[in-house]
Specification:
The chain has three helices and eleven strands, in the order ααβββββββββββα. The protein has helices at residues 2-8, 10-21, 210-231; strands at 25-29, 44-49, 72-74, 89-91, 107-117, 124-133, 135-140, 143-146, 168-175, 180-190, 197-206. 17% of the residues lie in helices and 32% in strands. It folds into two domains: 1-22 and 210-240; 23-207, Galactose-binding domain-like (Jelly Rolls), CATH 2.60.120. The strands form three sheets. A five-stranded antiparallel sheet has the order 2-5-10-7-8, with no helix packed on it.
Length: 240
């Protein structure tokens, strides 16, 4: 009975060791964004600031006109390409979009979300994919991880990524997240006096620390020795 209990406990021990090595995974995207509170995976429009008109584009540290929060899913038709799989284009107005009735003045448009993470010393690897009209900058906890693209000459979308003609995927390695609440901000630069909008998807997985890998390896070795000892045939002494 004791042997059965020990063997049945092995999956639990293995899962605990694996959890120690691979601590956290974060998935965010712009699907399902509506007017309302911040939640993981949604973007909330928070306001605007004036377009600096320079090159490269430099946005203010935050919106100077706080006419949010609230954001809306909008259809991708006309000039904009289809949204990234599993996401949706998001704008500050339900009437936005390439074929919508809204024309947004030139300026910077701010969208934010908050999410929780294990964070700490172990860094995260992954990627973020972004599209925007006209172009966008992405900040993680206030630090730029995706810069603005260059503004093109077609009067609606920038010719350089990220823009609304194609997906710009940026690979993130050694990214540090805070333990607890984190913030992600997308700043959309509208330069062509048209409808503004953004679309994004991000996946980050925590990289195991060497000490965690050592713990996992040691635990697996211990489990293997335990199985070996229990499977070893018993020697029966014969008295002749």
């Amino acid at each position: 009975m004791k042997t059965i209990l020990k063997i049945s406990a092995m999956p639990v021990m293995l899962c605990a060791l694996a959890s120690a090595a691979y601590a956290d995974s974060v998935t965010l995207n712009s699907a399902g964004s509506t007017a309302g509170p911040y939640t993981n995976g949604t973007l909330q429009y928070t306001g605007t600031s004036p377009l600096n008109g320079g090159s490269p584009l430099v946005a203010a540290t935050g919106p100077t006109v706080a006419d949010g929060p609230g954001s809306y899913d909008v259809a991708a038709n006309g000039v904009w390409v289809n949204a990234i799989a599993g996401t949706s284009w998001v704008s500050n107005s339900p009437e936005a979009g390439p074929d919508g009735s809204v024309t947004d003045p030139n300026g910077f448009y701010y969208y934010s979300t908050t999410f929780t993470a294990v964070g700490g010393a172990s860094a995260y690897d992954g990627s973020i994919s972004i599209m925007a009209d006209d172009t966008a900058e992405v900040l993680l906890n206030g630090s730029v991880i995706v810069p603005f693209g260059l503004i093109g000459g077609d009067g609606h979308c920038s010719n350089n990524m990220p823009n609304c003609n194609g997906v710009d995927t940026v690979w993130l390695n050694g990214t540090t997240l805070l333990a607890g609440s984190n913030s992600l901000t997308v700043i959309d630069a509208q330069t062509g006096s048209g409808p503004a909008g953004v679309d994004f998807s991000a996946n980050l997985t925590q990289t195991p620390e060497p000490s965690s890998l050592l713990l996992l390896g040691t635990g697996l070795l211990g489990l293997a020795l335990l199985v070996f000892r229990k499977a070893k045939p018993s020697v029966v002494a014969l008295n002749c």
